[in-house]
Structure prediction request, 229 residues.
Amino acid sequence: MGPLRDRAAVNEAAGRGRFITLEGGEGAGKSTQAKRLARHLESRGLSVVVTREPGGSPGAEIIRHVILSGAAEPFGPDAEAMLFAAARRDHLRTTILPALSRGDWVICDRFADSTRVYQGVAGKVDQAFILALERITVGEDRPDLTLILDLPAKVGLARAAGRGEGADRFEKEALAYHNKLRQGFKALAKSEPERCRLIDAAVDEEAVATAIRDTVDTHFGLGARLVAS
Ligand code: T5A
Prediction:
């Protein structure tokens, strides 16, 4: 039994909720699918909290504004990584961990893997530095399951641009940067197959939702358990 499975057994016994994260490049459909997954879990009688990063708590939302406005960009990717980590610490302590303790299931739109890939892989921040930040901010409170929505960077950027909101700090980066993100997320899925699942997000919204539902139900043995209850 690996550490993730050990923790799952402990969580089960404690009546603790489950922590699911959605990751991927720009415009991959994470927010859309977070809401759809929440409806699916609620239809199975579970209480669900949907949240996002950067942000998800009053303090972290302030840091979100600082980062996405581009105000922290002149300080470099190391400083941005530290800001994401500070926001994450507050978000975990004030939103995620209390929800899991209540028995709620938490769906989070981006989490620590975004720092690994955006600041680490694409931003070239030293890997040891990123992992040290993660140890301090996340520790053992890693997600139970991470769904990585995968699609060509160009397609995701076109979807994001289609919302007509203007490009933020990271959307405005060159295509080569976004291609690196895609490769980074794919490598992550390969390196942690027990926690991470790669989902084809280039197909229509309904097909992505079905793949996610099947993956979540299978991972947590949800269909069988709730039908039986
Ligand atoms: N970041 C974040 C870091 O660099 N490090 C970190 O540690 C963290 C946490 C956050 C930015 O911060 C960076 C990453 C990001 O650049 P954000 O505003 O929160 O920025 O936005 P993102 O998380 O990047 O999310 P996006 O706004 O890019 O998009 P989503 O949530 O992936 O996609 P969604 O659901 O909004 O869909 C985009 C559009 O596509 C349509 C939707 O209707 C919508 O119009 N769509 C589809 N169209 C066709 N087919 C489908 N299957 C579709 N699914 C959705």
Q: What stands out?
A: The first helix runs from residue 3 to 14. The chain has a mean pLDDT of 93. The pocket of T5A is lined by residues 26-32, 52-54, 68, 84, 109-110, 114-115, 118-119, 159-160, 162-163, 168, 170, 204-205, 208 (CB under 6 Å). The beta strands are 19-24, 48-52, 105-109, 145-150, 196-200.
